[in-house]
Specification:
- This protein is α/β, with parallel strands linked by helices and 309 residues long.
- The chain has six helices and 19 strands.
- α1 runs parallel beside α2, α1 runs parallel beside α6 and α4 packs parallel to α5.
- The protein is elongated, with a radius of gyration of 21 Å.
- Bound molecules: NADP nicotinamide-adenine-dinucleotide phosphate.
- The site of NADP nicotinamide-adenine-dinucleotide phosphate (NAP) has 20 residues, from α4.
């Protein structure tokens, strides 16, 4: 017999935790499943200055811990290390949310599974993960104290993570394929003021090189096509996000980049399946917007459950 909950939330970041607060406050028996530990990518952000209510800023770990405490206070059932492998819809309209041998049956689902870091797909990247290649400055910066590192990318993540690294590393080289950053101006300006961050414009990485550990990155000049070698001890890759949602099959529509397309009410094309946070097509992927999504999806699901009774 599978376990049953009226609603299942997939993903324990800000969107999922907010949905949990709303569903529980509406009296709905809800469980949240998370493939790792609660917090999502937000938990790995060192300093969050654009989430209202914290005038001095707050760390992502602290903010998401507070969100989780709040959701649990209202009785949200939380299952960590529940890695969803399949979501299917039964003939009676109920869903089965499966992870390995475990199965939860539910009347409604909120997908808030977030995104994963994109990989560069160049030689050396996979080989050196954990030996100099990283996708998380907050997690790994301490291993590069007083060392030289490269950050690949020019978006908000790359520049914000470069700032985190600059606090500990000797030199941070931001490698960007164009001559202008994509990151928000306020984030850019802070990075430009940081003495030990240098910007290598119009450069794209071709290969990560080393013996046992990362030693350098081979770069291509995107204007002249010339090659150069950057000696570094670590390479931090922040070249965007992707949504991994194969476990939903064709229950949802996706855009060309793989994000899930939903209407303004966050309802997917499958009745009873709502989508919140970074995993959906949206203009602004921030904690503030994820939290709004979580609330909206929960209210939509609450309405659906009432009508479907
Ligand atoms: P992003 O905005 O998609 O930026 C990805 C960066 O990587 C771009 O600069 C892109 O270059 C570069 N890039 C992509 N593929 C590459 C490749 N194969 N080789 C070299 N460079 C490559 O991703 P993100 O920075 O992770 O941000 C994702 C979302 O989260 C955004 O909506 C962002 O605003 C949000 N976010 C917000 C905050 C914040 O508000 N504090 C913090 C983190 C993230 P081009 O510019 O040339 O395309």
């Amino acid at each position: 017999m599978s376990e049953f909950h009226e609603a299942v939330i997939i993903g324990g970041g800000p969107a999922g935790l907010t949905a949990g607060v709303y569903l529980r406050r509406a009296g709905i028996d809800a469980a949240l499943v998370e493939r790792g530990v609660l917090g999502g990518t937000a938990a790995r952000t060192e300093q969050i200055d654009n989430y209202p209510g914290f005038p001095e800023g707050i760390s992502g770990a602290d903010l998401t811990r507070l969100m989780a405490e709040q959701a649990k206070r209202f009785g949200l059932v939380v299952k960590e290390f529940f890695d969803v492998s399949l979501v299917s819809r039964k003939d009676d309209g109920r869903f089965l949310v499966t992870s390995g041998e475990s199965e939860i049956e539910t009347r409604g689902v909120i997908l808030a599974a977030g995104t994963e870091w994109k990989q560069l797909g160049i030689p050396g990247e996979k080989e050196f993960v954990g030996r100099g290649v990283s996708y998380c400055a907050t997690c790994d910066a301490m291993f590069f104290q007083d060392q030289d590192v490269a950050v690949i990318g020019g978006g908000d993540s790359a520049i914000q993570e470069a700032m985190t690294l600059a606090n500990l590393c000797r030199r941070v080289s931001v490698v960007h394929r164009r001559d202008r950053l994509r990151a928000q101006v306020v984030i850019q300006e802070r990075a430009f003021r940081q003495g030990n961050i240098e910007f290598l414009w119009n450069k794209a990485p071709l290969e990560i090189i080393g013996k046992g550990q990362v030693e350098s990155v081979l770069l291509r000049d995107t204007q002249s096509d010339g090659r150069s070698t950057l000696k570094v001890d670590g390479v931090f890759v922040f070249v965007g996000l992707e949504a991994k949602t194969a476990f939903l099959g064709d229950l949802v529509d996706r855009d060309r980049a793989g994000f899930i397309e939903v209407g303004e009410d966050l309802a997917s094309k499958t009745k009873g399946l709502f989508v919140a946070g970074d995993v959906r097509t949206k203009r602004l992927r921030q904690i503030t917007t994820a939290v709004g999504d979580g609330a909206l999806a929960a209210v939509g699901l609450e309405q659906y459950l009432l009508e479907a009774r």
